[in-house]
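Chain A, query sequence.
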Amino acid sequence: MLSLKYVFISCIASIPMLVKCALQIQTSTEKDFVTNKYLVILRPQVGLANHMNVLHRQMGDGRATYGILLHNFTIGNFNAYSGHFDSGFIEQLVTHGDIARIEADQIVGTNSVTQTDAPRGLNVISHRRFSSDYDYVYDNAAGRGTYAYVLDSGINTQHKEFEGRATSGYVAEGLQPGDVSGHGSHVAGIIGSKTYGVAKKTRLISVKVLDHTLGSSSTLLEGFEWAYRDIKDKRLQAKAVINISVAGGIPKSINEAIDEAFANGISTVVAAGNYAEDVEIEWSTTGAIIVAATDLYNNRARFSSYGSAVTLFAPGVKIQSCWRGGPDAVRTESGTSQAAGFVTGVVALLKSRLKLPGAMVTRGVVQGLATRGIVKDLRGSPNLFLYNGGGR
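Chain A, predicted structure.
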């Protein structure tokens, strides 16, 4: 899991009082932030090009110390930019009519719950009833012709389990290819590896946004934008799914980007979080498939977040999958990251088998196929458990 919290810049409305502006942390949990680096989100329908022209004019006439612009974001109607800006310039932006919100860029990192016993998961998503039968039954298309974009720490593309189907699609600036953490390889293995994977023929696209176990919210957004554009440019909406394992108070910008992707037909699966709290603290998106985790006995896993915003549950305890460090490396992990991997794999399976046309239909089919009434300790979550549609 990635962990992040977001902040708003608030300020007295009167321009002469700009010196009283301050960063206000919106949550009770302190997180680390990147010094003087911000995400600036524009109001709906504000043109990014026109806004940037205004900024350049301000920079040119000496009325503001601009700083360094790093990246422009355009995801549907979502427009934003990131950069290193000094406090004087930020003080001007907070009263600018084009600006919807300013978020301090944050440190993000992995947050899986590690356990060491043998895995379980594939069998239970292909059986309607709780069973000791460890057979995994699935449609023979096995996700062939689909693409899973994994926003994470990278993928060990040389692992034998991926059979050459895992490739590096995007590496954030300043990061090295590959997976030093292992987290991204583990999630990718659940999605589509030969032995541990749900969709054993899907293609896995690494979108590396973490260095070891850390990254920033702006880097995460850059990776999401790259995946969004790659899917749209190649017209893969009916064949692709994005997987994100993040938690800890998601910036609104990420939620808005996911919703824009949903409106453009692109499916995104996200982990509910490992904080045992209401998932709405983590996610405000209405477009994502939000996945909570169950334990070995179909209870909500003790660490899993919950609530009415959850889409469904999937296995998340003692899951074995691929790891970093070599072509045969494996490891057992637990977390809602792993649960999200199972759902992403099922999305790939269903897109391959049923030719699902877009994100809304895809989510509806995943919910419609889910097994009902078997999860315990829901805490307001829907009683839906992942089913792959091809089992018993």
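Residues 69 and 83 are 4 Å apart (CA to CA). The longest helix spans residues 336-354.
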